[in-house]
Amino acid sequence: MAGLWRSYQALMTKHPWSVQIVTAGSLVGVGDVISQQLIERTGLANHSGRRTARMMAIGFCFVGPVVGGWYKVLDKMLIGGSKSTAVKKMLVDQLAFAPCFLGAFLGLSGALNGLTMEQNNAKLRRDYGDALISNYYLWPPVQIVNFYCVPLHYRLAVVQIVAVVWNSYLSWKANKM
Predict the structure, then answer these.
(1) Which of 11, 115, 138, 174 could form a disulfide with 119 if both were Cys (CB 3.0 to 4.6 A apart)?
(2) Beta-carbon count within 10 A of 143 CB
(3) What is the per-residue DSSP string for the chain?
């Protein structure tokens, strides 16, 4: 395990953006597998590989680049590593970024699931509030620790590890019809 971590760190040093995106996509996929197998209990015979691939695509093409880019912007907006700066970053993250990101994620998931505009809007109206409230239970303490203790280039990885649980929930929410 230590060797795997050293390899990850070496890759992160050489190719931080690519590694962050691959990490995000992979862990969104893991979250979907957990959602299908443990939450929805579909069983391996009924597992939708197509759905997992869609969720991974969202992770690779949307979650990784958007969240990774957001952390860079946030670090330029609020400079420093003090506790008060970490709290400010968490507040901006949770009050400005999270609501927009969550709506975009759920809308994109609906579109990729083939929902019509009307169906997607109805699904967003039904699921967005619950998902945002759930977001506020999990993410503020995680983000304070992340912004205070974790170097910028590891933040997306830390968030995505915690997000395996969150991604399982989001995958269930996004794919619940």
Answers:
(1) 115
(2) 25
(3) -HHHHHHHHHHHHH-HHHHHHHHHHHHHHHHHHHIIIIIS---GGG--HHHHHHHHHHIIIIIHHHHHHHHHHHHHHS---SHHHHHHHHHHIIIIIHHHHHHHHHHHHHHHTT--HHHHHHHHHHHHHHHHHHHHHHHHHHHHHHHHHS-HHHHHHHHHHHHHHHHHHHHHHHH--
CA distance 142 to 133: 15
Rg (CA), the chain: 16
Cα gap 105→109, rounded to integer Å: 6
Per-10-residue mean pLDDT of the chain, 177 residues long, equals 79 84 90 88 93 93 91 91 92 96 93 93 93 92 90 77 79 69
Residues 6+ apart with CB under 8 A from 161: 27
Of 45, 13, 16, 50, nearest in space to 32 by CA: 50
